[in-house]
Each structure stands twice: as C-alpha cells, then as structure tokens.
Amino acid sequence: MSKKKDLFNKEFFKEYRKDATKEEKQELNSILREDIGGDDVKVKPPEWSELRLDLDPDKIKEASAMIKDAMKTLSSDSGIMNTDVPEPSINFIEAPNSLSIKTPNNRSGIVFGTDRPSTLESGIGGKGGSGANTIDIVAGRGSSCKNAEKKAGVNPNMACDGARIYISEKTEVDLHFGLAAGIIGSGQKDGVKRAPGSAVAIKADDARVIGRNGVKIVTGRSFAFRAGPGGEKRSSGGELSEVPAPAIELIAGNNTEERKVFGGLKNPIETVNNLQGIARGDYTRDAIKEIAAMFEQVISCIDRLLWLQEAFNVMMGPSVWEPWRPPGSALTVGAQMTMINSSIWNLRIDKILWEINYLYPFGYKYVASQNVYST
User: Fold this and answer.
1) What confidence tens digit (pLDDT) does each residue in 303-350 have?
2) Which domain holds residue 196?
3) 186 neighbors 173 (Cβ within 8 angstroms)
C-alpha cells in the first residue's frame, strides 16, 4: 500500500479526504514533515513535533490556510522557510587561479585553487609552487572576525572562519592551522624541518566522526595492493617509513611542550613530557600481575623469616636442664639460607627482568606505546 493510501485511510482523515483538494493534501503533507510519494512508509510527525495525529481535520485546514496567508505577507529575504537571510555580504578576495562555488553573500563556499591559508602571498600557492592543488570548503567565512563585512577585502582565515574542510595536495597543515608540532608535526625534528605534504584538515567548534559499524584510525601504507616497486609511497613520491609505524597523536589543549611538576622531597622540581605514549592494556595488565606476584614472594619471605626467628628464639632460650638447645642455632641458620636468602635472590632477578620487559623501550612488553601518544 502506498503512503498516500496509508495516510488517507486513517479514521480521523476520512471526512477530510472527501473534500480536500490536491493542494490541501500537499499542504497537510508539508505540515506532517513527510513527503508523500514513496511506498511502504507510514506518514507521521517526528517524536519531537508538537503536531498530534488526532487533530481535527477542520483545524488542520485552518492552520494550512494561515500558513499560506503568512507566507504571502513575508518578504523574499526574511530568512523564514529558508528564504534569503538579511545578512551583509563580505568581499572575499579570490585568487586569479581559483574557481569558486559560493553563496550570494560570500560567507560560504567551495574554492578550487592552490594552497592558500591566508593572503594571496601565503602558502605554497603564494610562492608559485606546483603540485599544491587545494579544495577549501568553508561555512561562515569571517564569522568570528569583528566587522568582516566592513573590510575592503577578506582572506581565508583559519582562526576566524566558522567551519572548514581543507584538502590540499601539498601544504604545511600544522603551521597553517597553528597546531602544536608534537612528534609528527611540521616543527623541527633532529634539525630537519618536516617537508610539506598532502593533508586533510577539519576545523569547527565541534567536530564528529560517526561510524555505524565502527571507526578506524589507521596510519602507514596499505598492503592490499602493490602500488609499484617498493609499495605505496607518499603523495610526493617519497618512501614511507615503516619502523616505527607512523604515529597517532591525541593532543588536548594544543600543547605538547615539556612542563615542570613537583616530584617529591628528593626531587622537588621534575620535568615531564606533556605528550606521552599511551599505556597498552594487555601489557599494563601483565605488568601489574607480575609485580603482584613479586609482592607475594616478599610476603612469603617475611612470613618464613618470622617463623624461623620464633624457632630460633625458642632454641636459644637458656636452660640448665636442656643443654642441647644452643647447638640448634646452626639448624635455623641453614634454614634461613635455603628458605629466605635464595628466595630474595630469585625475587631480585625477577624484579630486574620485570623492569627490562615493561619499563624500557627495547622490552618486548614495553607498557607505553611508541606509536600512539596523548597529552
């Protein structure tokens, strides 16, 4: 049964169906926020709507007529019902080599050109560089800049523009967006500046990545195809590094600088890295389990030591009636060596191996990730 039949077979629409014109039926459909025409879909207002399905048909007709009359009296640029919004236009400075799709007021658009983060002189496009083709998608150009509409010309602004998706074949993305360099950023590393490369940047007040079946964050090359000798390469043709895998950085607050903290009485001022490798779950769990087992060994050693000390105290007690007691000390000393000293040495070896395995980057279960970092 079609949606149209389903809608007008409802009990409370029977009377209205007889007299309603085609235009009135379309208006009713608009009020219910559903487009009649498809099959197997029941028409009903969304849960958040204040409309009720048990409204009297005459009241629905009356409301429809009121909406029609109101629309006739509104100007074409009132902004209501997605008409033109009375908003001042801005003068966006377009590059000679660009092509733009934009709104009449120049506040939103898609610009096809070369890398240009700001003025015409900025970016690789401003230097005349090749291989820097860029798509700049902007909504709310100059939205947070004061009196943008009064300026003689407005350039792209990574700080003032409302929301942006910036896709470039070659750019310095961290530099242009003012991001902390981190480990993989565009700052200095080992005395060599990171070369520009292709990038996709998303910036807005709120950004969301939504996946109904999940979300993956993957770095490194794909092994699903050969992509020529040596496998997949960078956008510029350079080789990709595989060891270690390219990093993932989760930076809260846009700050990766070292900071000084209070490190205790013996180390009052300690310098720590703000950006650190995150702990890996299974390895951290194993580390805690093994150190718990070592604590259990310590408790066992103390327990046996107390037991032997008590026995030693009993045997060393002076008595003229039992002269054989003092020689018993040799037995307790031997027991201490076999039951306690050996356990202590084994515990020390376990502790050293635990440090090597979990606390050093060369350990096979190093708890801190060397590929995923966070602040």
Assistant:
1) 777 676 766 665 665 555 666 555 555 566 666 666 666 777 777 788
2) 99-203
3) yes
